[in-house]
Amino acid sequence: MRPAIRAARSDDQAELVALDELCFGPAAWSTGAWADEFDRLSEDRVVLVADEGALVGYVVLLLPQVALDVVEVLRIAVTPAERRTGIGGQLLTAALARCAGRTVLLEVAASNESAIGLYRGFGFEEISRRSGYYGGGEDAVIMRWRETV
Ligand SMILES: CC(C)(COP(=O)(O)OP(=O)(O)OC[C@H]1O[C@@H](n2cnc3c(N)ncnc32)[C@H](O)[C@@H]1OP(=O)(O)O)[C@@H](O)C(=O)NCCC(=O)NCCS
């Protein structure tokens, strides 16, 4: 069964905190950080979830700031047991559908082959690197997507 992709609701918050912990371990966002994300849903955040009874994935977008037409993908993850089944692609498809006519940027660790593979498949291109950006000295890769017409 393919999960439904839908906007997050406030009652998803506890489940998202647990899923984020499962996906990112010590780099997970805290309960407070997730509460901030939910507080900003009416302002500049979009949180989409992949729901198959339980939540199995999510994507968080930062919408354009004043005078800028750039959306940022802040986070995307799929529960480890269901990776490589197309859910990340489903989430990114739904996210990019909300970004028509805009530029989308994201930042990813240079060693994160699964995420980079996903992004490249959608036409994201590397535009720069931040040397030693992450703990342990790992580079951040900045990638950009623009809708092709
Ligand atoms: C990145 C992530 C969201 C991908 O989700 P997913 O559901 O596994 O992705 P999909 O099954 O839709 O894969 C789509 C494409 O991405 C690429 N891809 C996904 N996983 C890959 C891997 N391990 N190695 C290489 N390419 C990969 C492939 O091109 C794949 O297409 P294919 O399966 O037809 O070859 C998932 O691996 C994840 O949650 N990682 C941990 C969290 C994370 O690092 N997030 C990104 C930074 S915020």
UniProtKB/TrEMBL annotation:
Gene3D superfamilies: 3.40.630.30
Membrane-spanning intervals of the chain: none
Domain N-acetyltransferase: 3-148
GO molecular function: acyltransferase activity, transferring groups other than amino-acyl groups
Record has Hydrolase as a keyword: no
Keywords: Acyltransferase, Transferase
Pfam families with a match to the protein in the record: Acetyltransf_1 (PF00583)
InterPro entries: Acyl_CoA_acyltransferase, Bact_Acetyltransf, GNAT_dom
The protein's name: GNAT family N-acetyltransferase
Upper classification of the organism: Bacteria, Bacillati, Actinomycetota, Actinomycetes, Propionibacteriales
